[in-house]
Amino acid sequence: MLVGKRSAFSIISLEAQKSLFSSSSSAASLSAVLDPFLPATESAPQETPFSPAPLHPRSFVSALVRCRSPAEVRKVHALATTAAMIDNLGVANKHVYIYAQHGALADAYALFSRMKERDNVSWSVIVGGFVKVGYYANCLQTFRDFVRSGLRIDNFTLPFVLRACRDTVSLRLGVEIHHLVFKAGLQSDLSVSAALVDMYARCGDVDDARKVFDRMPKRHMVTWTVMMSGYAECGNPEESLALFDRMRGEGVVPDKIATVTVAFACAKLGVMHKAKMIHDYVSSWNFSLNVILGTALIDMYAKCGSADDARVIFDRMKDRNVITWSSMISAYGIHGRGREALDLFPLMLQSSIRPNRITFVSILSACSHAGLVDEGRQFFHLMERDYSIKPDVKHYTCMVDLLGRAGKLSEALELSEKMTLEKDEGFWGALLGACRIHGNAVLAEKAAKSLLELRPRNSGYYVLLSNIYANAGRWEDVAEVRDLMASRSLRKTPGWTWIEINNETHRFGVGDKSHPQSKEIYETLKVLIEKLESAGYVPDTNFVLHDIDEELKAGFLYTHSEKLAIAFGLFATPESTTLRITKNLRVCGDCHTFIKLASSVMHREIIVRDAHRFHHFNGGGSCSCGDYW
DNA sequence: ACCGGTGCGT
């Protein structure tokens, strides 16, 4: 990508130089172009047409900031050249800056390279210009020239270079720049250190980002935001939320962007009471939501388990873009409310919002979660026919999942054969799921092996393959997979279940006895199992495909983390309270049945979030996701 | 100079 951009640049650079040489002008056109830009004067109309008002550098600067296109900038540039004003450092810098603002980097650099004299502003403007349009190689090369020029590097250019390191994920280069920062004694500069934090965090080194962050004597909003964003992005949303609280504790008032970031973190965490807290905070402002913040809140509520709260935000928004609509569609989709998701589509069109690739991923995934086969097929065709959006792997993945779950394995396989795109992890995952539902061990084995090749470090796929062999009674193969896994020092990801009670999160593992109220939990569970068994519950070990050995043993089946969490929730909360449960892996089929029955027998609403979606159970025992187990 | 922010599959 960088190489492409670099070579593209050398081509346009030539063009720019051509245009620079060809731009000729006369004194007459000079005032004609500049006049509209000159501030209105109170002086009388010109008395002597032969002595035009003297041109001041400021006239060019104010003309430049009003330019609407590179072509206009070139005109002013030509005039400045004629008026010999381009040799004025301030005027030249402003030209370079304005060219860069319009993305005309070739023009900017052509001028920059011809400047007789350059100061820090010149360098900062050109280096920043390159970053802005993504010409990272040029940015870094120019920065090297800057360092060699002997001028003192300053706090204006460094953030741009650090941004180039961030965008290209070049940690080593970033560390080099960090050394330069120390050499220049700029480690306490607000913008430079904020850029350093951002660079480290986005290069995957949050610990060093945090070190820089902690050493800062003062921080501004951007610093807090990049640090929170770094934690959210690298899979530590808890710390992101903790920083948000700390920031508020220190009397810093988070702005919209900081709030968007923390909403994003909360969506990743999926903890409802935190979502409510963030929403309460937003409600305490008296200004309306902007598109980005509103959309972030929609997604946050959806991923914390409430499509209805997401809808409330959606309805209150004045402006909605394609991301807003897609998020709302997706919100219904992950909650198994496919019909409502699809109903949004015509409304979206009425609002003159054009669906894009991702909108259709959300639509198809909603169809799949709700079992809407015909609708899914229709949308799959319509997206290309009516919107010229060619289905990509993700769309095919949704379709394979949809058809597989709906019992149409052969159609799913047909589609898979027809697809010429390279099959990725997600696609094989969906195909595997479809094969497993239908007991097609041969194809399941193929899919699982592809997954092992694509993700040799993901222990989950070894477990799956091992289970496929076990189901087919191929015990030597089971042993082989286990050995392979052990030889790569991989272990099964432990299954955990979390439950939120009174704004507190409790975690359970299989057979967990570490909870302080363990005794009560096991007593409640025992009574519950008896109640459910008399209501027809039969423990089912056949579907426990994604959990393994220990958990499969009969004794453990009764103490699956989900069941412990449910038992705890039942005795720790009043009768009408909704139980919100999160599991890091998929909820197994037995637990699904168990929870469904439990919600019916105990007249409780239970919302389970697993690694992929939500399962809504209510007192009536129905699950709005449908049953595909 | 004006940084930091929103949606997608198993």
TrEMBL record:
GO MF term list: RNA binding; zinc ion binding
InterPro entries, alphabetized: DYW_dom, E2_motif, E_motif, PPR_At4g14850-like_plant, PPR_rpt, TPR-like_helical_dom_sf
Record keyword Repeat present: yes
Keywords: Repeat
PPR repeat start and end residues: 119-153, 189-219, 220-254, 290-320, 321-355, 356-386
Domain DYW: 536-629
Any GO BP annotation: chloroplast RNA processing
NCBIfam families membership: PPR
Name of this chain's protein: DYW domain-containing protein
